[in-house]
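RETRY 2/3 - previous attempt timed out on the joint model. Re-submitting the same 228-residue input unchanged.
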Amino acid sequence: TQLLEQSPQFLSIQEGENLTVYCNSSSVFSSLQWYRQEPGEGPVLLVTVVTGGEVKKLKRLTFQFGDARKDSSLHITAAQPGDTGLYLCAGAGYLQTGANNLFFGTGTRLTVIP
Amino acid sequence: NAGVTQTPKFQVLKTGQSMTLQCAQDMNHNSMYWYRQDPGMGLRLIYYSASEGTTDKGEVPNGYNVSRLNKREFSLRLESAAPSQTSVYFCASKIRQGRMEKLFFGSGTQLSVL
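RETRY 2/3 succeeded.
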């Protein structure tokens, strides 16, 4: 199993503040994805990054893939209550059988207070 | 668009009981997956089916069986439920375009084993 540790585990901030969520591993991944999950629903893909050092922006969200492709960060500018949810990173790696697998991080639960 | 549909939404079982979780997708995807989600552990792959007629073990297959009934349907069976199988279960299907992959998740089944 290729472990992805996310920090912080919980984050509660006021509307308008900025925040950064981190996703770290000792393993190298061919690509990395970020998902957002709302209560009672499945995760929804936000972005995929595939190149070391790559930066992608999605409105107020900025995603970065580490140069060594072992870590990633998600930065939210001027957080809104609609950003509330569970954020999951997921790295593309391999099972012990050699088959492709997406390994999910431990999750960061974000609450944005109006 | 229905996407990925899972049933039931909630289930309570007694230790030793059996049940089948149902999943269907209407996007004509070849690959389908079953994950379990536990607090602080992200999502872990139980079984997957790369195409109709094939199934393979994921990270945590013990205590589960699957059936890929046709291209649309992929079911997960617990033959003799144990309290350790209390979790939220997600079915997903996947589309692959070059190096980019996207998972589409159902809304989950919350299972409690007493």
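Chain B touches chain A through 24 residues (CB under 8 Å). Closing ticket.
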